[in-house]
Amino acid sequence: AGAAPEHISPDWDLSTLYVSNMNGATLTVIDPQTEQPTETMNVPFPYNLFFTPDGSKAIVVADYLGIDMVADNGLYFYDRETWELIKFVQVPWPGVNHLDFSPDGSYLLVSCESAGAVVKIDVNAMAIVGSVDLGGSPLDVRLAPAGDVFFVANQGTHGVDIVDAETLTHVDHIPTGP
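-> structure tokens emitted (178 positions)
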């Protein structure tokens, strides 16, 4: 799966697995039944891979700063069936990382580890609609079971930030220790 695999993501329909190889700019497709690679796809610097809740789009999270210091930091939206590129959304905050979707799938919240921020992106328009500064180093993002807020693990502030993505406000912080 390459020299530096980052994450393993199941396809939306659970038929295949994808291994993100950010440094090799590839996704390795694995058949979970045979446990064998079936294909290697070239995609720009895949740190992580997600699928929209309706299964229509694949989203490659690219967190890369090239030798020439040109940022390829953002989300690549692909048609999930054909893997044709639909749109690249450049995220101007460095360290784009993990994301989760709103209950209806209309928007997502993505963490920007190096900038201490989370960014709200409209999934249909594939455009940034806002951000909130949390400080620290926000990593994983998960929608709360009630669907009203997002939990953001923040290793820089040693806790979990609670964000209301509708209003883009930092609601609370739950200390967890280092």
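The chain has a mean pLDDT of 93.
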